[in-house]
Amino acid sequence: MTATSPLYTLKSLSKRYTRGKETVTIFDALDMTIPAGDFIAIMGPSGSGKTTLLNLLGGIDRPSSGEVHFEGARIDTLSQGRLARWRAAHAGFIFQFYNLMPTLTAAQNVELPLLLTRLSGSARKQRVKTALEIVGMGDRARHRPGQLSGGQQQRVAIARAIVADPKVLLADEPTGDLDRTTADEILQTLQLLNAEMGKTIIMVTHDPAAASFAERELHLNKGRFEERGKA
Amino acid sequence: MFKQTTAVTLLNLRSIPQRWGMSLATVLSIALVVGVLLGFMAMASGFRATLDGAGSDDVVIMLRGGAMTEMNSTVSRDEVRLLEAAPGIAASAGGDPLISSELYVVADGLRRASQTRANIALRGISPSGPQLRAQFALVDGRMFEPGAGELVVGQSVQREFDGFGLGETVRLGNNNWTVVGVFSTGGSVFDSEVWTDLGVVQNLYQRGSGVQTVRARLTSPEAITPLRDYVANEPRLNLEVLSERDYFARSAGGTTNLIMVLGWPLAIAMAIGALAGAWNAMYASVDARTRELATLRAIGFGGFPAFIAALAESFVLALVGGLAGVAATWLLFDGITASTLGSGFTQIVFSFAVTPDAALQGVVLAVIVGLLGGFVPALRAARIPLLAVHAS
User: Among A137, A143, A219, B391, which is least packed by CB within 10 angstroms?
Assistant: First the structure.
């Protein structure tokens, strides 16, 4: 696969929810390609389906119809077990509220995805150390989430997302719970991961300042994408 | 899979202190169930141990055929004479057969703790009687004189009843008796009895020359077979020959069964309550960690580790509850003395005994409660929707 070949291809993707007798269409017949190495900010008003799209790309939700292809292989039809293995191998998740395990140290949190691999204990430790150093948290390895600030917790969450060396990072409002300065530091870290490690990053955000860190911005509105040039 | 399961299980167990209130309630409710069950079992075990302790394989007790207890047995003087010549019976140093004809009557005494009247067994025995009781020891005073209104009393009687101090005169029925000695049979049922000379009981209670039972020491436990054959083939004898151990097992069976018939249903009823508690606690635990569990699933963990982890948490809480119940019961009940009405309508003093077997049964019950209570919440943990990763 070349640097510009599509990592994701979405074909006629639709997502509908049923609430009582009413069917709500989030988006319908969405087509899209995301090249490897891209850094996309998906923006849009509340309820436009930004997070739903991220869930479909990450294999934690399934479309009502249409297809999701990753590196040419369809993932939306995989069984639950295969999809779990796909997530473990290819996707790293970054959430708005960090989703760290409160009883584990930073290092133990980061190690979690590696427990799904065949790496030895010492190899896992080395990978964890490297991941924490990349995000600037090497000296906080033994701290528990409760002993860390919001920004530090998000850095640990990013380390957890990259430790298994996934191809894509899926970030849902990664700076939504942080102050501006800390948010910018986190976004610079994401830029670094995109530029220097070649990670494809798909970030959902409602914050234009956060979106400006991405290579391109896609606006999702009324079930349609609109690409806008960066300011 | 093992690494995944271990990691998620450790996560669960480490998070228990975050829900200490609910977890503690589960532990306590299970401890209570185990405590109640063990209380009944300790009672039954103690009662059985008291009777078993009195039973020996090389001592036989002979009763009228069909008589279930000493109270409704009669053995004539002629039958006793025939038994003295029976095979398999050991002889004393003087060459006489080690046989004790015994007559058992009910007297009433004043219980020290409650100051209420309760039945005491007054047993008339032959001179060989003490030698037919394992662990018999005269711990104070002397043996009664044949033909005199003298008593030796078991240690349990002296401890539980008023008026049986050494040298005291006690009134039983219409007669005054002097306590001349205190004996012990190692905590067996005989410690709950008062002994005197057989002839005196026959005379004062107008029982003629008959007795109720004949005890004899065998040359060996196997000698019961020729003795039984002898009794069966002698037309003038209508007796049942039982080893003392079998006799007491039969006597204890009814009471211990009754205790357990009361104990198990009560424990099971409480276990159902505790099961609901465990269920509730585990649901709360799974709910509290919905986002964590969903995050693990999103990372790539399977549902099975979450299922096992939730079950392990429930198992650990139940195990702690079970062990706490065993410890509390052992501290509170083990060795305490109680008395109950025995098959001879007299009080039998016994000690509660929390046995390892009972403790194991209590812990097993606790674990069953834990696993059943945790099963459905564990299924729920395994099926947490992935979209819960976004829960705030």
Answer: B391
